[in-house]
Design a protein that fits this description.
The chain is an alpha+beta fold. The protein folds into 2 domains: 233 residues, Periplasmic binding protein-like II (D-Maltodextrin-Binding Protein, domain 2, 3-Layer(aba) Sandwich), CATH 3.40.190.10; 164 residues, 3-Layer(aba) Sandwich (D-Maltodextrin-Binding Protein, domain 2), CATH 3.40.190. Helices cover 42% and strands 12% of the residues. The protein has 19 helices and 14 strands. The strands form 6 sheets. Strands 3-11-4 form a 3-stranded antiparallel β-sheet. Strands 8-5-9 form a 3-stranded antiparallel β-sheet. Strand 6 and strand 7 form a beta hairpin.
């Protein structure tokens, strides 16, 4: 998720909408009622909440899940569906007009700017009053601290996959070539290269054509194996960016340069978009890739296009590099928050927290993820769950996917998901989280004005320099690319990031 551009014009509007009661007091809102008994909700309360949608069916105003929530908590929910790419701009328009929703999702830059304007309820002392919610979101979680001042909590983070993507191999392609699946100890970058070369050169899909790719440039686990940081690392007590790791880059780029010259690396890697790499996987052209555990979709797509194929995808530990390093890149967890509008009154704030407190329970998640029993799913004669014809058009999982969910990686596992697939998900989670590769400065970039102004251009130029090396320039050229990055704003970014780390 891209960081939002710094909000300027809407800040004045926020200072107006926050009102005198919250003002510039760091987001302090009126204290929240301790009531969490839905049975005591005698007054019906209206609640506005927006949710992004990304095409496909939309929720109607009388959606069964909304009706369920309205009846259970004596509320009147007004759901505002906003086209995904327009969401951030719509929020700014709402802020300018003083009509921000009662409960909504917000992204990093806006979260930082608006919390300073007192736009959000301070949940610091309130969360403990809701036992299910506080158990699901313990205050000592790193994601709870990200983007919050020390000791403060202005929003609940989205927490799912801490580490999501790992290297995966088409076992059936290995079988076709008479190759064995390597063990974790055997899976080094040299073994990775050997498999990739075979997949590129030896017709692993047995279609008689030279139309397969060894590996794509987005195979970030390979870069990690050479010790290159996930954005930032700590050295001698100071945070430094990966652009300063010149020696590590020389070794990595020599590997990539060789792979390109020998036709093992995707020959169109410079122009290839991420969606096109996914297409390569699903169209039976790429059998060694970094991806998440979307086995069913990939295997189904391959079988649909190639009915005679029998794709078998095996997730792997990331390959080990020359010094034994290996890691799966961590996600930036905690950069998306859900917040409560500081203008909401005590009863409304309490009612929203009641809903969230229920939402994170088994009962609540069951409804918010699977829908309403008897409408979106039912039990068949054998006692097994199955979806109804309302499941797809009414997308009952929408709010759980696009607004709020309890922490965990089971958000796309349903009552009717097979036990085998549930186990596959659990095994994959255990595998990827065994080899974390965290960003030592996660969440700090939003505090650097220079980063926000210059990083996109600086990083693009650094990447362009890497591409040129892979395509033919000497690996030593990375030295100049590093110096240029530092000289044109990087040094100031480093200074600001380290200052932010101290202040946090």
């Amino acid at each position: 998720m891209k960081l939002m551009k710094t909000i300027t014009g809407s800040l004045l509007a926020l200072s107006l909408i926050a009102g005198c009661s919250s003002g510039n007091n760091g987001g302090n809102a009126p204290s929240v009622s301790t009531s969490s008994d839905a049975g005591k909700n005698s007054v019906r309360i209206p609640i506005t909440m927006p949710a992004q949608y990304w095409g496909g069916p939309k929720w109607a105003e009388d959606h069964p899940t909304i009706k369920y929530l309205n009846e259970k908590f004596n509320v009147d929910i007004k759901l505002q569906l906003i086209n995904g790419p327009e969401y951030e701009e719509k929020l700014k328009v709402m802020a300018a007009s003083g009509s921000l929703p009662d409960f909504y999702k917000v992204y990093s830059d806006t979260y930082i700017a608006w919390q300073r304007e007192g736009a959000f309820v301070d949940l610091t002392g309130e969360l403990a009053k809701y036992k299910n919610l506080s158990a699901a979101f313990p205050m000592d979680l790193e994601a709870m601290k990200v983007l919050n001042p020390s000791g403060k909590l202005y929003g609940l983070p989205e927490i799912s996959w801490t580490v999501r993507d790992s290297v995966q191999i088409r076992q059936d392609w290995l079988d076709n070539l008479g190759m064995k699946l390597p063990s974790t100890d055997e899976f080094t970058v040299d073994k990775f290269y050997e498999i990739a070369k075979a997949f590129a050169k030896q017709d692993p899909d047995k279609n008689g054509k030279n139309d397969t790719v060894g590996f794509a440039a987005n195979n970030i686990a390979v870069r990690n194996a050479f010790g290159i940081a996930n954005q930032w690392t700590k050295k001698d007590g100071k945070l430094i960016p990966h652009q300063m790791q010149v020696e590590e880059y020389k070794t990595y780029l020599a590997f990539m340069k060789k792979a390109y010259s020998e036709g093992v690396l995707d020959q169109d890697f410079v122009l290839r978009k991420s969606t096109e790499i996914e297409d390569l996987i699903k169209s039976n052209k790429l059998g060694l890739f970094t991806y998440h555990n979307n086995y069913i979709e990939i295997e189904g797509a391959v079988k649909k296009t190639f009915p005679d194929s029998k794709p078998v995808i095996v997730p792997m530990a990331p390959p080990a590099g020359p010094t034994g390093l290996r890691g799966n890149t961590n996600n930036a967890v905690g950069m998306i928050k859900v917040v409560i509008n500081a203008k909401a009154g005590k009863e409304k704030i309490d009612r929203i927290l009641q809903i969230l407190d229920w939402w994170v329970t088994e009962e609540g998640t069951k409804v918010m993820k699977n829908g309403v029993e008897g409408i979106h799913y039912k039990k068949n004669a054998e006692g097994k769950y199955e979806i109804t014809d309302k499941w797809e058009p009414e997308v009952p999982r929408h709010l759980n996917s696009n607004l709020f969910k309890r922490p965990g990686t089971d958000f796309n596992l349903y009552l009717w998901t097979s036990p085998a697939e549930v186990k596959r998900n659990e095994d994959y989670k255990a595998l990827v989280e065994k080899y974390p590769w965290p960003n030592a400065a996660m969440g700090l970039e939003v505090y650097s004005e220079t980063y926000k102004k210059k990083s996109a251009d600086l990083n693009a130029k650094f990447q362009e320099a890497m591409y040129k090396i892979i395509l033919g320039e000497p690996v030593e050229s990375i030295e100049k690319a590093s110096k240029d990055w530092l000289a044109n704003g990087g040094e100031q970014i480093i200074k600001e990031i380290n200052e932010a780390a101290v202040q946090k």
